[in-house]
Amino acid sequence: MAQNETIEKFLDGLASSAPTPGGGGAAAISGAMGAALVSMVCNLTIGKKKYVEVEADLKEVLAKSEALRATLTGMIADDVAAFDAVMGAYGLPKDTDAQKAARAERIQAALKEATDVPLACCRVCREVIDLAGIVAEKGNLNVISDAGVAVLSAYAGLRSAALNVYVNAKGLNDRAFAEERLKELEGLVGDAGALNERIYEVVKAKLV
């Protein structure tokens, strides 16, 4: 998916029988939407007299959320490339012992990349969750519900990308590599569920 591709075209691709884009791209889009909503809350808070005390903080958040949004958008293409590399490796000839060995090596290399790509997405989504917590606390009350949607979107992206880490790590022969990635993943997911709920409740309390 190109970064300037329309949402409709992307969703048509998701719904089609084509293997890509798939869940990995959807995870990146979820995270990017979360980052965009964090930016929205910042943009609608900065410059308001009522929120002058938090303006510097939210300008800093805005710079971070925009950088994360760009990163996550780029990860849609990264996911497609990683998937295509795995499928390409599995499609290599295996008629001779040499071909079988080369194919196995390529598969393992591709699976490592296909593990690292969604793990990177998880890292960025986790950062978006943290930023959503800041705007939930300090953002313009008129758009505070968007901070809630931001954290939910980022959390969905995190958990979704985690599934791709699990499935690809499972196929790795290099268990030290796999366990290292899975350990990092558990750290990222860790308290994210509880944090997601806490931020949601912060937002909800300001709405009811």
Q: Which features would summarize this protein structure in a list?
A:
single chain, 208 residues, mainly alpha, 7 helices, 0% strand, elongated
Between the first and last Cα atoms, what is the distance in angstroms? Answer: 40 Å
Q: Residue ranges: pLDDT <50 for 5 or more in a row?
A: none
The fraction of residues assigned to DSSP E strands is under 5%
**SSE sequence, one letter per element:** HHHHHHH
What's the β-strand tally? Answer: 0
Radius of gyration: 20 Å
Report the biggest beta sheet as strand number plus sense, adding barrel if it closes. none
Count of discrete alpha- or pi-helical segments spanning 4 or more residues: 7
**Helical content class:** over 70%
Average of pLDDT:
96
Please state the structural category: mainly alpha
**Overall 3D shape:** elongated
Can you put this structure into words, describing what you see?
The protein is an all-alpha fold. 80% of the residues lie in helices and 0% in strands. It contains seven helices and no strands. α2 (23-43) runs antiparallel to α3 (55-90), α3 packs antiparallel against α4 and α4 runs parallel beside α6 (175-189). The chain is elongated. The mean pLDDT is 96.
Summarize the structure.
With 208 residues, the protein is mainly alpha-helical. The chain has 7 helices and no strands.
Explain the layout of strands and helices.
Layout: H1 7-15, H2 23-43, H3 55-90, H4 97-138, H5 144-170, H6 175-189, H7 192-207
